[in-house]
């Protein structure tokens, strides 16, 4: 809605200035709690600049961090704010290591983060309440009418009737073909011929057009009428007859495009956040964990059976492109590598059974993450033989390959891992993989990683 674009830009500037002021207050309060004075030493003053700069960068990744209006539900606003703080903490921790700022008090840092989160969180709640109060006042009302009274019109009416939307006052439907049996019929103010006179008499601000777009003359006439009388003309197309799910609107330059499913990872900023995290997380594992466990695991594998330490196998990745997937070898050397492992599989070694149970056999795949063939979280890459088979019997199987495969995934932490003797078990995996694609968020990845570690600790009955 272009009408609110200036309002949103102004909000961003005000809230960014407020955030920096609250961060400064948090630093002073934390220093007071820790050292008994609000005066910051030189190193901590520099750290304040870094802290605020990283927050500015993180908020730039997510335009919705500064949204206090009603176009987003409060749960989504809270989730965006939490995501921003998690990403901020991750980037800041990396900066502390890179710039050698280890001398900063960890307790002071904890105080700063807690106070910053509370102050910024409280300021958002306060601003949302003020925004809600303003949008419900008479001076904030934007009077609008709807052309049409079908499902698209009713959905629009219900959406603007929500408590959290900006102040908009519904004035009525106008439709030549209104259904007299509809529960909304009493809201129909007249025919389409009555629309223009009604708008002039009642100082209407906006007209929403929800009828099929096959009457070009009517659309052109209403467009000219709105231009001449300083009204906003909005077209709300109804796709319910051809698509039975949510649509997502994207713009390529000035060309509108519709997608029939949510694809968060199609957005460049989301892919950038995920890739930066993948690189940092995999580097941490390779540098901190791999040097410790590699000699031990390698020795145990060699002591039990002859053969290589690592197992390499072609797996289908994003868009079915094959890549070499690395694992610790968990089986005796055999010629049946395209055969899925089963319970009590005689090919699996004793150390291999332990590695599979604890997911430690997947550690070399962090090199795949660095190479860009895999992500830390995503649909698990299946065997090539499984791709050939299931793509023919499961309609949505190939959809899981729209995104980069992962070391761990939503299906695995939801209990769907191990052998897939029956087709419905693979169907459930695909179902959860598609849910992951359509609902991805940075916090969702964090949740999956946490559940993966938890499952490693407690053990999984289907891991073999």
TrEMBL record:
Protein name, entry field: Undecaprenyl-phosphate glucose phosphotransferase
Matches recorded under Gene3D superfamilies: NAD(P)-binding Rossmann-like Domain
Enzyme Commission identifier(s): 2.7.8.31
Organism name: Pontibacter fetidus
Locations listed in the record: Membrane
Top EC category: transferase
Membrane spanning residue stretches: 12-33, 45-66, 78-101, 107-127, 279-301
Keyword flag Metal-binding: no
């Amino acid at each position: 809605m272009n009408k609110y674009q200036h309002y949103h830009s102004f909000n961003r500037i005000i809230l960014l200035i407020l955030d920096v002021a609250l961060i400064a207050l948090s630093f002073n309060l934390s220093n007071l709690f820790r050292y008994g004075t609000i005066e910051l030493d030189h190193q901590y003053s520099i750290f304040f600049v870094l802290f605020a700069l990283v927050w500015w960068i993180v908020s730039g990744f997510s335009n919705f961090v500064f949204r206090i209006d009603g176009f987003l539900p409060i749960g989504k606003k809270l989730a965006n704010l939490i995501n921003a703080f998690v990403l901020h903490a991750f980037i800041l921790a990396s900066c502390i290591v890179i710039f050698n700022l280890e001398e900063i008090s960890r307790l002071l840092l904890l105080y700063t983060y807690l106070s910053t989160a509370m102050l910024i969180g409280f300021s958002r709640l306060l601003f949302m309440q003020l925004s809600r109060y303003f949008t419900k006042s008479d001076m904030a009302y934007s009077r609008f009418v709807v052309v049409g009274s079908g499902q698209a019109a009713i959905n629009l009416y219900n959406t603007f009737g929500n408590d959290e939307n900006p102040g908009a006052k519904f004035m009525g439907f106008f439709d030549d073909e209104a259904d007299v049996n509809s529960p909304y019929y009493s809201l129909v103010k007249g025919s389409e011929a009555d629309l223009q006179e009604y708008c002039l008499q009642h100082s209407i601000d906006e007209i929403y057009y929800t009828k099929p777009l096959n009457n070009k003359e009517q659309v052109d006439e209403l467009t000219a009428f709105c231009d001449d009388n300083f009204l906003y003309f909005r077209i709300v197309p109804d796709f319910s007859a051809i698509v039975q799910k949510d649509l997502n609107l994207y713009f390529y330059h000035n060309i509108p495009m519709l997608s029939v499913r949510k694809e968060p990872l199609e957005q460049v900023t989301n892919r950038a956040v995920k890739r930066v995290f993948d690189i940092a997380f995999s580097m941490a594992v390779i540098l901190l964990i791999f040097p410790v466990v590699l000699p031990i695991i390698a020795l145990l594998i060699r002591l039990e059976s002859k053969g290589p330490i690592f197992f390499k196998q072609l797996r289908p990745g994003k868009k079915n492109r094959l890549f070499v997937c690395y694992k610790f070898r968990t089986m005796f050397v055999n010629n049946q590598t395209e055969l899925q492992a089963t319970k009590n599989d005689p090919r699996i070694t004793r150390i291999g059974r332990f590695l599979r149970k604890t997911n430690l056999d997947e550690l070399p795949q962090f090199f795949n993450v660095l190479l860009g063939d895999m992500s830390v979280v995503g649909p698990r890459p299946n065997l090539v033989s499984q791709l050939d088979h299931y793509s023919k019997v499961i309609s949505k199987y190939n959809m899981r390959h729209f995104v980069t495969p992962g070391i761990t995934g939503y299906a695995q932490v939801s209990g769907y891992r191990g052998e897939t003797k029956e087709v419905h078990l693979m169907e459930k995996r695909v179902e959860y993989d598609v849910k992951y694609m359509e609902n991805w968020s940075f916090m969702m990845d964090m949740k999956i990683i946490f559940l993966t570690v938890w499952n490693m600790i407690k053990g999984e009955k289907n891991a073999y």
